[in-house]
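S1.2 Input.
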Amino acid sequence: MTQPARILVVGGGYVGMYAALRLQRRLRRGEAEVVVISPDPYMTYQPFLPEAAAGSVAPAHVIVPLRRVLPRCQVVVGQARRIDHARRVAYVSTHATRSEGGGDAELRYDELVLAPGSVSRTLPIPGLAESGIGFKTVEEAVGLRNHVLAQLDIASSTRDVEVRDAALTFVFVGGGFAGVEALAELEDMARYATRYYHNVLPEDMRWVLVEASDRILPEVGAELGRYAVRELRGRNVDVRLETRLASCEKRVAVLSDGARLPTRTVVWTAGVRPHPLVAATDLPRDPHGRLRVTAALRLDGTEHAWAAGDAAAVPDLTAEKPGAECAPNAQHAVRQGRLLADNVVATLRGGEPREYRHALIGSVASLGLHQGVAHLYGRQVKGYPAWLMHRLYHLSRLPTANRKARVLSDWTLAALFKREIAALGSLENPRAEFELAVGTGRQPDQ
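S1.3 Output.
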């Protein structure tokens, strides 16, 4: 009896999850088995991370459990360390392999779908590795929320002017969607929270956005980008264009324009790079380190290997400029994941794959509660209508009716009741209280 083909999907993000969803729907029973390797047992809907950080949406509602939505797939929670496509083997580290103390598990496959996504693109800036805060995961969003609220606690309980100023200065590096939306949402939350601190006023805080280029939110166009700058500056946000972070050692952020900002908060959102796994494969890559694929999402010159999303250089056949590539965003990733799955099924059945073609419908961005910008179908929208469009657009794209209903209920409750402003920093060290009780831990900071 012929064994069914094994399709290995590496990555549980947009491409990985949507490809696996499509595969389990289209494959006939016994035709193939689908194995999904993901470092987390869930997919994170990243556009809602700023709202999760601000407390408008519960963190658990911006993730989609993979095992629930992929009942016909085998989900392996682990990290693919290396892929030897010549032998059709992936080397995977899981909780079990680490507990057993052995080497990585070898997982054989017939078809490979490589969608590991991206990681933050960092630079060799002094102090960044030690004190920088990322903003790509739900854990980082929750941690940043707790951190910001903890800074208000520090500022309200110290008489040291230098400590207070550093606690109330928040530096965000990167003027793309992640940096602008995270700053705007957290500034809204912190400004609201100050009403519960008798000695901290909104004007005591300093929010700084550092962007290396001459504008922010380039995806929405130059005019809306300028509007976003005016809107943020109108809220006393210090937007510094054509400026870089030079160092952030000893709780001082030094900028390329000479400014020195004492701060306890440096949030790094200045771009992404392909996941390190890409470099640990024998698959073709472009000069930027991304996987080189054809318009059919197949690895260039390689059989039985497919890729899409942030880690792949996908040709944009709808662009006017020859040689253009698709932007690394969710809009492309979701559609690429679905087409990739269709192409895998087609080749398994002896058919021909189709090429990926999709023209972007536009972009939306939130600038905090009731403010936003949107550029959709060639039309520009600002203010409250754009903010509403931002919410409705991302709600429509959020996977599963279950998650849509939960996020909608979060928004309804947030509109009816006051914000939650309690920090749960102890979540980052849940055993601290027990260690203190048994005498092995240190006295908690006051």
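S1.4 Remarks. The mean pLDDT is 92.
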